[in-house]
Design goal:
With 83 residues, this protein is an alpha+beta fold. It contains 4 helices and 2 strands, in the order ββαααα.
């Protein structure tokens, strides 16, 4: 059995977590499920979309972004093809 001491920084409360080898195997299985190529691509698309702020929209509409917005849009389109 593994134990880990955790302190909640907001409240200062200490807690000891205990888990077994089965718990760890389940955790690893969940991580493996979340690491499928499709999910990794979806995360990358979300990361790129998060950079597309209102300021970037405004610059693209005014034509002052130097093609930045179109380049991000092309990256997303290429990633969607891979899905």
């Amino acid at each position: 059995m593994l134990t880990k001491k955790i302190i909640d920084l907001r409240t200062g409360i200490e807690e000891v977590l205990e888990w077994t080898a089965e718990d760890e195997a389940q955790r690893q299985a969940i991580i493996a499920q979340e690491s499928t190529p499709q999910k990794l691509i979806a995360r990358e698309i979300q990361r790129i979309e998060a950079t597309m702020t209102t300021r970037r929209f405004r610059e693209a509409a005014l034509g002052t972004d130097g093609g930045w917005f179109a380049a991000r849009d092309a990256e997303i389109a290429a990633l969607r093809v891979q899905m």
